[in-house]
Predict the structure.
Amino acid sequence: MKTATSANVDLVLPLEKKFGGVLRLAVAGIANRLEFNWEQIEDIKLATEEAFLLVLKAGRSAKVHITFKISPNDLKIQFVDADLGVFNIKSYQQKYSFFIMTGLMDKVDIVPLNETHFDLRLEKKIY
């Protein structure tokens, strides 16, 4: 199951809980076109929604920018310059979210940009 081309898809959503469903539909559509199986698509949807909720819980931004980088070998999902507030992996909510994301995806990175803004990157390999 490999895609022959590379592409980027950008999605900007209002940071409101009701738009989590829009994100899930977008993720499902992209993952389906990459021929992930049903279980993998559900894993990607759940991990991406957990990332969205992590940003939503900080509640300090009006919108969230998500980039999907499609390549022949993987799907990378990045929450660009996401406002997570003061990120503390020891915080129960943040630790739980991170645990879910790392359990479902092949790679999860949180890259600090400053004290409250991060790039949150999720990666799922195409086998």
In short: The beta strands are 7-14, 63-70, 74-83, 107-112, 117-125. The mean pLDDT is 90.
